[in-house]
Amino acid sequence: MEIINVKFYDANKYLAICKVEIKNGNISFTGEYNNGIGQVNNSIKPRTKLQKKFLELWDKYHLNGLSAGTPRQNEALKKLNINDAYQYEIACSYLNSIGLLYDDISDYDNLIFTKIIKDGNKKLYKYGNGWVKLKITDDILNEIRKVCELLNNETKRYLENIKSRNNDENVTFDNIAKEDEKKAALGLALDLSPEECNFSIKKLLNTDIYSYAGINYYVLTEEEAKEKAKERIEDCLNESLADVNPILRYYFDEERYIDDVISNDGIGSILNVYDGSELEAEVNDTIYYIYRI
Description:
By secondary structure, this protein is α+β, with helices and mostly antiparallel strands. It has helices at residues 49-61, 71-79, 88-97, 138-165, 173-179, 181-189, 194-200, 222-240, 246-250, 254-265, 267-271, and strands spanning 2-9, 15-23, 26-33, 36-38, 102-104, 111-113, 117-119, 122-126, 132-134, 201-203, 209-212, 215-220, 279-283, 286-292.
């Protein structure tokens, strides 16, 4: 299997982390963007022509353009805005009324059909009776590879420009830490340059939450992390035990339960709802713990 990783900053200055997987002639696109994961392509706001082209390739070739209908069938349904799986019977009735429920596929050399109906010398495809996929040629694969390569190079230039615009000897992690240790800690944990850290990381007002490229993080000391995890567990307990008889709840040792959850599960699994991980960075002899939220 071939995996191509792509990263870029869109018009919102949010980071899009994308992956293209190619295996046995099949293609899939997935991504992470603004705390979302999976098919995030419709949320990304392209900043450049290359980003727009990459998203067009995603729309066209993800899962080989898998569809329930042929291009002619899909085009006919598009005119009536019939494209929901729950409207299958309505779609079939309409296609039958215009003679397209069974489509002659003899002129579709670039498509693969999982189920074909033979009618004499004709080969027909019934809408929704199988799947229709694009044949992925070497030209298509090479186009995807080339656009990914160009896009990654464009991102490198974008980051270099940020560095050059902010390139003065005062932009160091030590100097960033003089104003905000937690901001410096997040930059170090994410392996950013001092310039990108200074330019891209923003603190949410009156919180311990910092935002980088559309993704939010807690940046906490050890004590703050334990307290935040305790608050999260207490909220869950209060919700779960809301209907429990107060007399019975009196005998439930909440403090011990909370300590056991933190000890056994770890703070990462409590505060990081994304993947349960925990990053850390040391700034001025203080260790800060970072959790994606």
